[in-house]
Here is the input.
Amino acid sequence: MKSLFTPLKNNHLTTLKINYNYKTDHVRFFAAKEWEPDQDFSQYNKKFYAESILTDKAVYLNTEEVRELFKKEGLLDYLNQVVELLREGRHVGIVCFYNERYDLHFMLNKHSYTKGLNNKYHAAMCGGCRLHPADDDELEVIIDGLNLSRGMSFKNIAADIPFGGSKTVLHGPKPDLNNMDTMGFIGYCVDRCHILTGPDMNYPNIISDIENDNFSMQFNGGPKSPLGNTGKPTALGVYLTLKEALKSLGEDGSLKGKSAAIQGLGSVGANLAERLLEEGANLVVADIDQARVDKFLKDHPGKPIKAVKLADILTQKVDIVCPCAIGGVITEENIPQLQCKVIWGPANNQIKAHSQEEEIRLAKKLADRGILFQTEWWHNAAGVFCAAEEYMMGRKATVPEAERKIAELLPRTTRENLAKAKKLGITPTECLYKTCQDIIYA
Ligand code: NAD
Here is the structure.
């Protein structure tokens, strides 16, 4: 497998930075040996710090020397391929830290600093941390991380938090939670990158608590965190913005008597479904995990809930379809079969698209079919909002106060976007990309 880490590995280097400036199209590289393989990271922030010089035999390579290094390793084309991805997504760069002792690959995908500049916090960017098994193809891992970091730049605007967008990736063997050397290394890397992070796919949320207790305060969302699981606040944001969506269609915003199809009864989906039921909606539900459906039915006896086959959930004849599971569920192929008036849910990347342009094109197809849709990151931002709230308020963060702020922010911004889109005669999705692009790339 081609890897940015191979030249580091073969030359006892620890660090690679790729910087891209989309305004000038300028690329710069930096590589270094910043510590020895026997560096004991369990002593991070005890005997040494993020900015300490860790070896007498440091090595630093400039842009040309890094190019030469990759050429020597037969990986210059691969390096250029990664740069092309940065160029396409207008990303500011990638940082790689290599831990030779555990063959751990730490990667930070950086999209934008803009919102995080001069924010008075150590972190300038915010985005979760994903773990990828060692045999996942590195280029796929980079594409995933870059896309997610770009998404975070937009979502952080939606959440009105003072951070740019990033995504952290650990690629390699699952880190041993009992090994303080590994945990210290992860804390050190995160602190070096000026980011705040929290659990994302495959990432055990206990890592955040271990980091907070021992190494770094730039981690959120651990079991001991004051705001707990973000499923509930995210459902609140989706529910309140859905009412705004209905109002924009000339209704009173009430869900009484409405029918809704819920795809996925997990953390957000079940919470959202409960709110809809409480207000008098009729539900159709499906989940890949039948036990979740059975439990939901058992927990709500006598309520108007019908379970349907997974394959039929999106094409139900209902007022609202709520995607609350995987992404990529709205496709070119199934748009003609949809029978709802509104699509509104928390699932990330609901429209199956490889680019922003593609997403805007398919959102227009939905609008042409008379279906109201707004790209989800504008209304599912309560999760990242809570992460930032915890980061900025520490133990003083409380659920009622976070919910009060979410209830103030998200319905208002959705109302504004829906009105602006109507005025401009474009879809809510296109309208959001226009608004946020101006902020990010100004
Ligand atoms: P979850 O893992 O708690 O729940 C997901 C549910 O979807 C599970 O019940 C699972 O069995 C089900 N599911 C998986 N694949 C399915 C399929 N193909 N068809 C039907 N059901 C399927 O996750 P969650 O935290 O509730 O998140 C749901 C979605 O919302 C995800 O896309 C997530 O990225 C997004 N999201 C979550 C938050 C949050 O705060 N939790 C915030 C923003 C966005």
Summary: The first helix runs from residue 5 to 10.
